[in-house]
């Protein structure tokens, strides 16, 4: 074994380029596989990890302070089946004000709880911005800062002093919309108690209900909440990402198998001469095989360790980003056993890729093994080269184009690697364009400026001037915005809950008035967008759930009054409770009862949205209007784009290593031929041109083959994603390729082939003629 180890160490030191290639390719494969599997495993446990780390409440109960005492509520913490509890927290409801406020409230107001600190045995809060409340006049709100409603804002309610927003926090379960100190809530005339529980039995919604009933022991409960509801809401949102993550995981596994098998087996085959020399010196076939397995195992283990760390960090960062986007308090972490299994699998694959050709070489006689590594076989590719030389092509180009024919199997493997790289880049370009189109297809993404009909105004009321009298109606505000310089399009957007026969819950009807067509986007799947009152466009998921078709009549209940609408189209979205229609389709009474609409504005080309919003704010001081710049949400798009870019770079780098390995192996095999060419007068630059041309031809072929494969793969992935989500995909999101998008991926194969072939070709051309012919 000492001889095997000494020979292995010498081989690792002597063949630095191939040793480095093996280490890099194993690191890339491990990182890619760990990253993909880490995301897949986290997708199934992200909510559970966050819930466990934050000690989320299985259930929460709201008690009426007029019917129960604080001691009675506190006694429920010792109820049957309760393992931990927090509270009781006094709660108060801040009524929506008539006057100005820098924080928007729902019509029913804002429920706040008195809490001394964000920790505790149950439902630990995570501050995402600012700090915790320290004294009177301060409040921490649930969620993240949004738009103009951030730190330092004022929460105003009728009959209470203003509260300054000092922080934002998130929790694993639903609950109050804000928190103040216990002393502060006592000054807000509290009317309830809030208790949070963890139970021994809470595996399902029914178990949670039974456990809560046993804990409260007959006390009257004003309201209750279960963690199952929050979990289902999260899973419904996260399921939109699972198809993309699944594709990454599957492709990562495929790429890992291919690049390791290609590079490692090539490195073993290129050492046939070394194997023959060892056998001539007395090494047994088993020892020869062991030497080469160890030579591959050393860089493979180092590369696997680096890849494990890199993949773990990448997956952890991505899971943290997703957790933040979904407003979870903590993402937990990726599964370490799965990462370890992925690393072991990559090492096993590398060992198998080295063992198979090494076993074959170990059985070869010493003379045949030596000649296999130094002398090219006669007749292979000669006819093609003679024909190409007789053409008008330059001699190095003709000889180079004939080189792949001499080793068709190796050329096919190299071509497959290049095709994989081109396919990945083509699909990545398409996925990036598709995700960009999807995330910019909603009305918010097409909006330049959002103008609010002050959220501080009560339902159905118009903004008031400083004197308290109504200053303008919604129609007048719409006309005011239209008259502003730089306004291109403006529409009034609102939401109204309606009921549909056959559905237990309400459906959200999104209403638009004014010049709304430029805001609707390109997400239509079938039919068309609505153009006049009486027409409605539901989500595709709603259409499939209700088994409806374009042209069908849809009757909705609005404040108990039936309204019949005609379905003229369906838009791509997984929500089963969304309708879009002209605001005039609803009865006037319903429109008047709704909250004041938001005004969405698209400014003219060359108009600065920030300056436009500032002018609106100055003009709206007397009418209660406020404006803020809007635009597409770039966080998710950046996440997806980063994934596509990272994946494409890994594939291309792996393909380049495969090309480099193939050219290096070909140069060693054709050492005699290169020496003869240099002896008859071929300068080094023409030797480089000949060898680069051999790979460039494969690069061009990979572009011809890989681009159509990438387009087909993109179409398949996007279509499958739409079907898995039940939302469908709009045609503009699928058919995204044009010549400008196809030319860069088509050139990737050629660029990777040339860049991968250039270093070993230059190295081979620099070898002295005498050294190249020494094997003779």
Automatic annotation (TrEMBL):
Residue ranges annotated for the ABC3 transporter permease C-terminal domain, each copy included: 247-364, 646-763
Presence of the UniProt keyword Ligase in the record: no
Membrane topology, as annotated: Multi-pass membrane protein
Location of the protein in the cell: Cell membrane
Composition bias, Low complexity: 449-474
Gene Ontology MF terms in the entry: transmembrane transporter activity
Domain MacB-like periplasmic core residues, every copy: 412-618
Keywords carried by this UniProt record: Cell membrane, Membrane, Transmembrane, Transmembrane helix
Family annotation (Pfam families): FtsX, MacB_PCD
Transmembrane annotation, as ranges: 21-40, 241-269, 290-314, 334-356, 411-431, 643-666, 687-713, 733-758
Coiled-coil positions: none
Principal place of residence: membrane
InterPro entries from the UniProt entry: ABC3_permease_C, MacB_PCD, Macrolide_Exporter_MacB
Superkingdom to which the source organism belongs: Bacteria
Region (Disordered): 440-476
GO cellular component: plasma membrane
Family according to the record: Belongs to the ABC-4 integral membrane protein family.
Designated name of the protein: ABC transporter permease
Source organism (scientific name): Actinomadura decatromicini
């Amino acid at each position: 074994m000492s001889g095997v180890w000494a020979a292995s160490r010498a081989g690792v030191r002597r063949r630095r380029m191939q040793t480095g290639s093996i280490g890099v390719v194993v690191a890339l494969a491990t990182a890619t596989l760990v990253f993909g599997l880490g995301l897949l495993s986290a997708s199934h446990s992200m909510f559970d990890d966050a819930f466990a780390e934050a000690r989320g409440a299985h259930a929460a109960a709201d008690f009426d302070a007029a019917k129960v005492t604080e001691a009675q509520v506190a006694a429920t913490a010792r109820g049957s089946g309760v393992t931990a509890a927090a509270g009781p927290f006094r709660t108060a409801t801040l009524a929506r004000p008539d006057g100005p406020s820098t924080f928007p409230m729902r019509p029913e107001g804002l429920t706040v709880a008195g809490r001394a600190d964000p920790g505790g045995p149950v439902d630990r809060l995570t501050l995402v911005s600012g700090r915790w409340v320290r004294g009177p006049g301060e409040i921490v709100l649930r969620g993240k800062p949004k738009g103009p409603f951030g730190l330092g804002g004022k929460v105003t309610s009728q009959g209470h002093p203003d509260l300054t927003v000092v922080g934002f926090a998130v929790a694993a379960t639903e609950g109050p919309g804000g928190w103040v100190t216990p002393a502060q809530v006592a000054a807000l005339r509290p009317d309830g108690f809030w208790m949070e529980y963890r139970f021994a039995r809470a595996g399902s919604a029914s178990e949670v209900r039974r456990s809560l009933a046993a804990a409260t022991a007959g006390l009257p409960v004003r309201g209750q909440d279960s963690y199952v509801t929050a979990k289902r809401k999260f899973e419904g949102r996260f399921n939109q990402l699972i198809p993309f993550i699944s594709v990454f995981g599957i492709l990562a596994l495929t790429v890992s198998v291919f690049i390791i098998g290609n590079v490692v087996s090539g490195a073993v085959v290129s050492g046939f001469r070394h194997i023959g020399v060892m056998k001539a010196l007395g090494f047994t076939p088993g020892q020869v095989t062991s030497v080469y397995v160890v030579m591959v195992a050393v860089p493979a283990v180092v590369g696997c360790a680096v890849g494990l760390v890199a993949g773990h960090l990448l997956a952890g960062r991505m899971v943290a980003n997703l957790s933040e986007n979904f407003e979870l308090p903590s993402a937990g972490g990726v599964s370490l056993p799965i990462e370890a299994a992925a690393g072991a699998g990559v090492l096993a694959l590398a060992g198998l890729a080295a063992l198979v050709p090494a076993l074959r070489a170990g059985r070869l006689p010493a003379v045949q093994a030596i000649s296999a590594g130094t002398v090219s076989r006669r007749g292979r590719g000669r006819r093609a080269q003679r024909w190409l030389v007789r053409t008008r092509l330059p001699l190095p180009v003709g000889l180079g184009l004939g080189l792949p024919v001499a080793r068709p199997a190796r050329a096919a493997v190299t071509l497959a690697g290049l095709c994989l790289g081109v396919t990945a880049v083509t699909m990545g370009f398409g996925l990036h364009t598709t995700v960009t189109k999807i995330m910019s297809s909603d009305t918010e993404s097409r909006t330049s400026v959002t103008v609010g009909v002050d959220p501080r105004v009560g339902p159905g009321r118009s903004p008031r001037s400083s004197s308290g009298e109504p200053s303008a109606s919604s129609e007048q505000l719409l006309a005011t915005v239209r008259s502003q310089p730089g306004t291109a399009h403006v529409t009034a957007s609102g939401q109204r809950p309606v009921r549909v026969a056959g559905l237990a819950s309400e459906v959200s009807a999104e209403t638009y008035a004014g010049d709304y067509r430029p805001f609707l986007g390109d997400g239509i799947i079938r039919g068309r967008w609505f153009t006049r009152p009486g027409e409605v466009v539901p989500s595709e998921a709603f259409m499939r759930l209700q088994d409806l078709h374009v042209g069908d009549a849809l009757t909705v209940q609005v404040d108990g009054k039936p309204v019949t609408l005609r379905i003229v189209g369906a838009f791509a979205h997984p929500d089963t409770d969304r309708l879009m229609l002209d605001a005039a389709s609803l009865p006037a009474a319903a429109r008047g009862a709704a909250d004041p609409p938001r005004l969405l504005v698209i400014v003219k080309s060359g108009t600065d949205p920030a300056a436009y919003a500032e002018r609106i704010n100055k003009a709206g001081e007397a009418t209660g209007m406020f404006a803020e710049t809007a635009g597409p949400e770039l966080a998710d798009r950046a996440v997806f784009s980063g994934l596509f870019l990272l994946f494409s770079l890994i594939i291309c780098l792996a393909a380049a290593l495969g090309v480099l390995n193939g050219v290096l192996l070909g140069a060693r095999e054709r050492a005699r031929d290169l020496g003869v060419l240099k002896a008859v007068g071929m300068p080094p630059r023409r030797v480089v041109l000949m060898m680069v041309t051999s790979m460039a031809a494969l690069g061009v072929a990979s572009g011809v083959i890989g681009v159509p494969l990438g387009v087909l793969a993109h179409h398949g992935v996007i279509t499958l994603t739409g079907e898995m989500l039940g939302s469908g995909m709009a045609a503009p999101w699928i058919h995204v390729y044009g010549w400008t998008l196809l030319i860069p991926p088509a050139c990737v194969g050629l660029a990777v082939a040339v860049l991968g072939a250039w270093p070993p070709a230059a190295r081979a051309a620099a070898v002295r003629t005498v050294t190249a012919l020494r094997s003779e």
